[in-house]
Specification:
The complex is a heterotrimer. Chain B is α+β, with helices and mostly antiparallel strands. Chain B is built from four helices and seven strands; from the N terminus they run ββββββααααβ. Chain B has a single domain, classed as Alpha-D-Glucose-1,6-Bisphosphate, Chain A, domain 4 (2-Layer Sandwich), CATH 3.30.530.20. Helices cover 18% and strands 37% of the residues of chain B. Chain C is α+β, with helices and mostly antiparallel strands. The chains are: A alpha+beta, B alpha+beta, C alpha+beta. Bound molecules: flavin-adenine dinucleotide (FAD) and FE2/S2 (inorganic) cluster (2 copies). Flavin-adenine dinucleotide (FAD) binds next to strand 2, helix 2, helix 7 and strand 10 of chain C.
Chain lengths: 913, 203, 287
């Protein structure tokens, strides 16, 4: 049934007449009917604000307005902000101030800002704060957005700024990004997944007849239609024993194991119809008792991992003091602002499958899809696209990826799937849920002798691509930056009837850091020691490095190569004015407020995954195109690669284009995960640039008839040193490197090099988090007043971006510490399926995060000396905030569970009355 | 024998299995179910019944399974009717609004069970007032009984009157309809001495 | 997350809206700002078969003082109330001050006063204030208008005394209440309150409380007043001790049904928020 209306709307000054079905949202009309894809959809239920446009000058959430309601009205979108491709002052300010990373939320903020500045050209700080708190951003931690608005409001934006701060910025600031939902293919079908609504049940029958009969429905398929062996493979070890019983089928066959598990798919001509039809698919179940808590009676672990070294038992026997903590970290996850999605197009004649939207590990996904679909890897191209944040969960191979591609081949038409927000919250990897008993053996002077570690890791219903990685990593990284001679670790991995879990920013380490730092705080209290002094005593010293720890992490044993743990601590405490924070808190406590400070040390890891490839082509116009296996997830990898190449070849940034994660351009690649992009892709790009330099010189020396040693590179050309008139531009070099010319010299045609950088050992960045918080005794609510991160990155290729990563990471860590949690009712029905219930922090909940950045422990394993910086902003948030809450309440060791919700604090305070 | 599920209608019977539809409404939120209902046990003498029901949402992914046991403990000056319901609701309704819909559903099932019991016992008086507000007896709330003009909607009234079995005025119960959801709710209430069986339509 | 199909009707007068609603039957719904209805439709929890778009009925977008009475048209946007302290006039400052608790800027610019009441969310600011300030809701159907006391208006979760073919056209606040206040707690900025309280009182010459109203949101499926606590304060000096005693009574009265962990939090909030609100109200309009 459709109810069509012809509407007239003016968009960015241009009049349009569109026939719309009355239920089509204004957002969909703009995006899909008018192809103005700069307006983004992050939730479709009014919370995130990514879809904000101006309607007759007033900002509205275009997902809450039906297109037909805008009839006769004027709409302004992000596409209308740039004047002839020149960024406006607000856009410019966003670029300069780090107001965007992935850029998915950016159009919404720009529209809000535009309306505000139009109505109040000189807004108050409070008005700006209100504005920033109105929309959600998952990347920036809001500080950059706030700075950008202030700058634009106060007229501070640089006029005619020579170039945007990041290569990615211009397109993302003008609505020109290409996110997966921006890809529409002619004749495409839409897939909708029918999901289990019971946590544990046998499937008795799936009745899809009514759905099949609906107009516009092409097919409804369940597991019986799929080829055998359609299961999601594990991407990363360890592989302990036979894990096949724990793998997720692409569609559930005999049974379902969590609410949200795919049981069938609908393929239809239109996404609205697909959703109508999916509702009509009736699945009859025979319910079973769900297992929802690993502590539930009779729960058995699926796998038990044991890791350790030294003689922990002996150390415990000899210890002066044994301290133990029982801690728990709640289930939360990355929840990027853009949901997942995929478009697949199968060219029957060419036998070629093209896929958009699989941004993270495209080469792995290509290989896995090839195996499942019975294709050669060369028959699949995964195209690069923008992504609205990844943080670990996006771009892994999920059931939907297999379905979309398989359906495209089966129906010989392009197939598109865009996850909606409620689906995302039950379908995309969860993370973090762990309970842990940690025991430490201490000497009287505070030395930590040994640790016993018992983890109950709740992985949800299946092992997906990350396999046992998180539980292994949480053991491997538990000891952090401390010297410990004996470790006895065990992780029991439970499969429960909840959404499967995988990695999320600082996987395993967020949990481990929380447990370990809580243990050390408790030990300090027990020994009557200052908690910082206790850390100092146990931190590894420079002369003890490299420090080898025989526990594996991502296939390598831990080797901490270079670090100045004590130095960073000292510097951070000084720069943050920690003693001032402490004094202030004590003073305010004296006045009756519950304010406290907390501190936590962490060790991170970055890199891993063996290799990365980079390719540089000199294009016909002399510009360079850099392609890499790393992918663009908002972390600014394009800028990093451009920076490295510009530096190496002395070209202007405008002359370098970066394509991240296109499997046609680079044959093999590792992808973007584990804070590895800079380390691996950056190093590969540097290597490629060096090889290209040699090639350019070689060709130029032939053409200029000069010795290569007398040549130099400059401004996109090669010239004879000291005689600038004999020069030859890159464009000309490219033109004269055609097949014929190159053939004569035994070179392949074109000016192109591909370099692979292999086997950088893992690097171990480290840092310190400091928090000052206030507990509201009326409500139990915790607010973070100040937050400071001290971090050693080795070498910062792009310091602005490192800052952005750390500040944004801290906002996520704070969210996980205070607000975010996936909860379930007694039957396993998820209770956090909307942005109303899963609480992403707004700007009002995130403080300004300050930083101390050191470039001290230069990583030895890669030529850039870089350590990743993707995760260190997040790792210790739970630990530092917990310590601060303890201090605020003056109850050492009180906080043992994350998130620290008002209900939980109230429970603590109840004992106080 | 058919139960009195608010908003329900019986569409057919196959052996001792009834098929029917049910519509629940909380303000703008509407859920329609279709399903089956079966008396696993029915002892009119002892006023004990065990009923199992299962339903799927007609449009919308979700559904419900329920088991309801009613029994009576005879006492000095009345009988205590004990109704145990074990309902599993799934889908959107069970996931929305931090349990808000769940609470409404608890009331609805309590109402259902009470109606059912009344039917079994032949009780023809209106339900005791406390039934309208679970646990609210002790406080004064100004949220008054609904105004008569509002939704004396025939639909709700009619839908309660399943198979004409429940002819009497049930008052505020009728509007406390909602989507069902609860686990192991036990409702106990005193209904006074059991009366004669009413003369009310086919049983 | 796309809404189920519906037919759309835009109307240009209240009469036309009422005709349409009547003719389309029970499954049709008016849509005003859409800030509550559209999300419910996106989740497909609400699936009206038809929408009657009243958002352009300028005749319902008024905000005016008539003698003692403040009349708020159903289509007056939250943002208009927020910035409309002058139009509201003395004694109604609590409305403008409380508007900022409703969602965020863009939501306040689109959402309407009448829509909020008609939606009947038990923790909505306007619903609480309507109850605390003894507002009267004016509803109209084809036959004419009727007045419904706020106390009779909310009948259940998201449910009101409005008939399907009736429109809320205006909300009337009978008299200025300079001594009133709204306090609430939500875990995240802009969210619906976990617990909210609106209070209003008068002070006699001796500074004693009269005509006290205390209304809570978020603790039941409708906003509720606590008559016992109101009575307790009647004639008492407007002082901290009396406020706390009344607040404790509220917590005890309403908290009973809440039980468990969240109940503990809510009880505590009821007490603390009402102490604050009573204090603020007795101090009168700030500044
Ligand atoms: C992210 C977000 C946060 C929010 N936070 C808050 C908050 O903190 N506090 C709060 O109070 N609200 C909040 N809201 C809701 C907002 O205030 C809504 O505007 C309001 O609840 C409904 O008003 P509306 O005009 O948008 O109504 P609509 O959504 O158009 O309608 C709501 C309901 O009322 C009916 N209706 C509307 N107008 C009339 C009328 N004149 N006569 C009869 N029936 C009518 C409709 O049929 C519908 O059932 C929030 C909304 C969002 C999206
Ligand atoms: S608010 Fe519209 S998409 Fe999130
Ligand atoms: S930049 Fe805001 S969500 Fe990514």
């Amino acid at each position: 049934m459709s109810d069509l209306h012809l509407i007239a709307i003016t968009v960015n000054g241009e009049a349009h007449e569109v026939a719309v079905d009355s239920r089509r949202t204004l957002a969909d009309v703009l995006r899909h009917d008018l192809r103005l894809t700069g307006t983004h959809l992050g939730c479709e239920h009014g919370v995130c604000g990514a879809c904000t446009v101006l309607l007759d000058g007033s900002p509205v959430r275009s997902c809450l307005v039906f297109g037909v309601q805008a009839d006769g009205m004027e709409v302004e979108t992000v596409e209308g902000l740039a004047d002839d491709g020149t960024l406006g002052p607000l856009q410019q300010a966003f670029s300069e101030e780090g107001g965007l990373q992935c850029g998915f939320c950016t159009p919404g903020f720009l529209m809000l800002g535009t309306a505000l500045l139009r109505e109040h050209p000189d807004p108050t700080e409070e008005e700006i704060d209100d504005l920033v708190a109105a929309n959600l951003c998952r990347c920036t931690g809001y500080a950059g957005i706030r700075r950008a608005l202030l700058k634009a409001a106060r007229g501070g934006a640089t006029e005619g700024w020579p170039e945007p701060a990041r290569v990615e910025d211009p397109r993302l600031l003008t609505g020109g990004g290409r996110f997966v939902d921006d890809v529409d293919r002619a004749g495409q079908l839409w897939m909708r997944v029918v999901r289990a609504d019971l946590a544990a049940a046998e499937i008795v029958e799936i009745d899809a007849e009514a759905a099949r009969q609906m107009e516009g429905v092409v097919a409804v398929l369940d597991a019986t239609s799929l080829p055998d062996g359609f299961v999601i493979p594990i991407r990363l070890g360890p592989y302990e024993g036979d894990l096949t019983p724990f793998l997720q089928p692409v569609l559930a066959g005999a049974e379902v194991r969590y609410v949200g598990e795919p049981v069938a798919v609908v393929v239809a001509e239109d996404p609205y119809v697909a959703e109508d039809a999916a509702e009509r698919v009736v699945t009859r179940y025979a319910p079973r008792e769900p297992l929802l808590d690993s502590a539930q009676h009779g729960a058995e672990p699926a796998v038990t991992l044991r890791r350790g070294f030294g003689d922990a038992d002996a150390a415990f026997a000899a210890a002066d003091l044994v301290v133990e903590v029982d801690v728990r970290v709640g289930r939360h996850s990355a929840v990027p602002l853009e949901t997942r999605g995929l478009v697949a197009d199968w060219d029957t004649q060419a036998r070629h499958l093209t896929v958009w939207g699989a941004t993270k590990v495209p080469h792995f996904n290509r290989g896995a899809l090839a195996r499942l679909l019975g294709l050669g890897a060369e028959e699949i191209t995964i195209r690069a696209s923008d992504a609205g944040g990844g943080f670990g969960v996006r771009g892994e191979l999920y059931p939907e990826d297999v379905l979309v591609t398989w359906l495209a081949m089966r129906f010989e038409r392009p197939v598109k799937w865009i996850e909606d927000r409620s689906e995302h919250l039950v379908a995309t990897n969860h993370s973090r849920e762990q309970s842990r008993r940690l025991e430490g053996a201490f000497r009287e002077d505070g030395s930590l002798l040994a640790v016993r570690d018992r983890v109950r890791h709740d992985n949800g219903a299946y092992l997906r691509t990350h396999g046992l990685l998180v539980p292994e990593m949480t053991l491997g990284m538990l000891l952090g930056p401390y010297r410990v001679d004996g470790y006895d670790g065990e992780a029991q991995v439970f499969l429960t009837n909840k959404t499967p879990a995988g990695t999320y920013r600082a996987p395993g380490r967020y949990e481990a850091t929380f447990a370990r730092e809580r243990l050390l705080d408790k030990a300090a209290a027990a020994l009557g020691m200052d908690p910082i002094a206790l850390r100092r005593r146990n931190l590894l010293k420079a002369r003890e490095l490299p420090h080898h720890r025989p526990v594996p992490v991502l296939g390598h044993e831990v080797v901490i190569d270079d670090a100045d743990f004590a130095g960073l601590l000292a510097e951070t405490l000084k720069e943050s004015n920690w003693s001032g924070w402490k004094k202030e808190a004590a003073k305010l406590r004296g006045e009756g407020r519950a304010i406290g400070v907390g501190f936590a040390y962490f060790l991170e890891k970055s890199g891993g995954g063996g290799f990365e490839t980079a390719r540089i082509d000199v294009l016909a116009d002399g510009r360079l195109r850099v392609s890499s296996g790393a992918t663009s997830l908002g972390q600014g990898v394009e800028t990093v690669l451009a920076e490295v190449v510009c530096r190496e070849l002395d070209v202007a940034r405008a002359d370098v284009a970066v394509v991240a994660g296109d499997t046609d351009l680079v044959e093999a690649g590792g992808g973007s995960w584990a804070s590895r992009s800079t380390v691996y892709a950056g190093s590969a790009a540097q290597k490629a640039a060096q090889e290209l330099r040699a090639l350019l010189l070689e060709v130029a020396s032939e053409l200029l008839e000069a010795d290569a040693r007398d040549l130099e590179l400059g401004a996109g050309a090669v010239e004879v040193r000291g005689s600038p008139s004999s020069r030859i531009s890159f464009a000309e070099l490219a033109a004269r490197s055609d097949a014929l010319a190159n053939g004569r010299h035994g070179r392949p045609p074109g000016l192109s090099v591909t370099a692979t950088f292999t086997d950088a050992p893992m690097t171990y960045p480290y840092g310190v988090h400091l928090a000052q918080v206030e507990v509201d005794r009326r409500s139990g609510a915790v607010s973070v007043l100040r937050y400071h991160v001290g971090y050693d990155v080795g070498t910062a290729i792009s310091p602005r971006q490192v800052e952005g990563q750390l500040v944004g990471g801290a906002a996520q860590g704070i969210g996980g510490a205070l607000l975010e949690e996936f909860t379930y009712d007694e039957l396993g029905q998820p209770q956090s399926t909307t942005f109303i219930d899963y609480l992403l922090p707004t700007a009002a909940e995130v403080p300004d995060v300050t930083l101390t950045l050191l470039e001290r422990g230069r990583a030895k394993g890669n030529p850039l000396g870089a350590k990743g910086a993707g995760e260190g902003g997040t790792t210790a948030c739970g630990a530092a905030i917990a310590a601060a809450v303890d201090d605020a309440l003056q109850r050492p060791g009180a906080i043992l569970e994350l998130p620290i919700t008002p209900t939980r604090v109230m429970r603590l305070l109840a004992g106080e009355e | 024998m058919a139960p009195c599920l608010p908003g329900a209608s019986i569409e057919g019977k196959d052996g001792d299995v009834y098929t029917g539809a049910m519509r629940t409404k909380v303000g703008p939120i509407v859920a329609s179910y279709r399903g089956t209902l079966k008396f696993d046990e029915l002892d009119k003498e002892k006023r004990r019944a065990v009923i199992s029901a299962r339903a799927e949402e007609v449009s919308g992914q979700g559904g419900a399974e329920a088991q309801i046991v009613t029994s009576v403990i005879e006492g000095e000056d009345g009988s205590l009717v004990v109704i145990e319901t074990d309902v599993q609701i799934r889908g959107r309704v069970a996931q929305f609004g931090r349990g808000a819909l769940e609470k409404i559903s608890q009331k609805m099932f309590a109402d259902f069970a009470k109606n059912l019991e009344r039917q079994l016992s032949g009780e023809s008086e209106a339900a005791p007032e406390e039934a309208a507000r679970e646990g609210g007896g002790a406080r004064e709330a100004t949220a008054a009984p609904p105004s008569p003009t509002a939704a004396d909607g025939t639909a709700e009234q009619a839908s309660l009157d399943v198979l004409g079995l429940v002819g009497e005025q049930i008052g505020p119960l009728a509007r406390r309809v909602g989507a069902p959801l609860l686990v192991g709710l036990v409702v106990g209430f005193v209904v006074g001495r059991s009366g004669r069986r009413g003369e009310r339509g086919p049983g | 997350m796309k809404p189920a199909p519906f037919a759309y009707h835009r109307v240009h007068s209240v009469e036309a809206a009422l005709e349409r609603l009547h003719e389309l039957g029970e499954e049709a719904k008016p849509i005003a700002g859409g800030q509550s209805l559209a999300p419910l439709m996106a989740f497909r929890l609400a699936r009206p078969t038809a929408l009657v778009d009243i958002s352009r009925l300028a005749e319902l977008a008024h905000l005016a003082r008539v003698g003692d009475e403040l009349r708020v048209g159903a289509l007056t946007r939250h943002a208009t109330v927020e910035s409309g302290a002058a139009q509201c006039g003395e004694g109604f400052e609590v409305l403008s001050r409380s508007a900022r608790f409703i969602g965020h800027g863009p939501i306040r610019r689109r959402g309407t006063f009448g829509g909020s009441l008609a939606h009947g969310d038990p923790s909505a600011e306007w619903c609480l204030l309507a109850l605390a300030l003894d507002a009267v809701v004016i509803a109209r159907d084809r036959a004419g208008e009727r007045a419904i006391d706020a106390g009779d208006f909310f009948t259940g979760y998201f449910s009101t005394a409005l008939a399907p073919d009736e429109l809320l056209v205006e909300v009337r606040f009978p008299r200025p209440r300079p001594h009133s206040s709204l306090k609430e707690f939500s875990r995240r900025r802009g969210d619906f309150a976990l617990v909210g309280v609106a209070v209003a009182l008068d002070l006699d010459r001796a500074g004693r409380c009269e005509d006290v109203r205390i209304a809570f949101g978020g603790v039941d499926d409708v906003p509720v007043r606590v008559a016992a606590a109101e009575r307790l304060l009647e004639g008492e000096p407007a002082e901290a001790d009396a406020f706390r005693a009344a607040a404790e009574l509220c917590g005890a009265e309403l908290g009973r049904g809440l039980g468990d962990e969240d109940g503990r939090l809510k009880r505590r909030l009821m007490v603390e928020l009402s102490v604050e609100a009573l204090g603020e109200a007795s101090a009168g309009v700030p500044g």
